[in-house]
Amino acid sequence: MKLIAAVFLITFFAISSVLAQVSERKLVSINNKKMAYRTFGLENRKIGEPIVVFESGLGSSGGSNGSLFPFIQNNFAGIVYDRNGIGESELDSAVKTDADVVKRLHDLLTTLKISPPYLLVGHSIGGPFIRLFASKHPEEIAGLFFIDPTDFMLTKEEDDEVKFKTGSKTGYQELLNINLQNIIKDPSTSTGFRHEAERELNESTPHFFKNYTSLPPLPDIPVTVMIAYSKHIEQYETKMNKELNLGINLIPWWKELDQLRIEHYAEMIKNNHNSKLILLPKYSHGIHQQDPKLVAEALISIYNSTLRSSKPSN
Q1: Do residues 207 and 216 make contact, with C-beta atoms less than 8 angstroms apart?
Q2: DSSP 8-state assignment for residue 282
């Protein structure tokens, strides 16, 4: 069976033609492996101003953010990049954990002499990545911007309760592992994407996002979280549910998981000033591709909040 590579995570791949309008693709050696990146607005960046750093979803290159650039490239400086093995970046077998992903990104920024503060943007599983980055380098972060992030805070007990309440046989955590295993086994999966799926499977084995369970609280920085909920059940979801005998009652199952994700991210930012949780009913997982202007406006707003937050009070 040919795998639909991102069921429930849903990945979005490169929009290189749009990125080309931002800057030419460049390569730099990080840990003796080539990494691809593009930048915009660096020539106009002033000392102390944040730079926007984009982290893409599972299997997605930096080009997956390309739909945003027509709306933002004249508002601030930014950088997009391809993780090792994805897009045009060389595979690095030494990147075995999400902490390694964070370190490679930090090494990239350091090597390019792109100084903090950073406003990190993460879509899907890129959301957990930027949260982990903030825990490793809190003093370098100006703000966080989550686009329909994966719920790395979902506990086993909550997942089991969702199964019980909805009369479903399979929980989200189990389904994630099934999907990752299928990506790995699929002969059409690229070597780099397979390596990324193997890394994420390891991160959630034996416990879901096992290296995220004891993260320190966020510093008091602006945070925006955009969450799509009450999404349309796609035909491929129904098909896979049947073919794999998952026994998921999809509508109530997603409703419960949506509510938990909203609660988790609301709790995460409850002590952060200039922060917001934006709920978008009936939107797709790729909010920034479905409605790039909406996402761009929210991103510009949080960028302006980081500027205000960085100014010393009188």
Answers
A1: no
A2: T
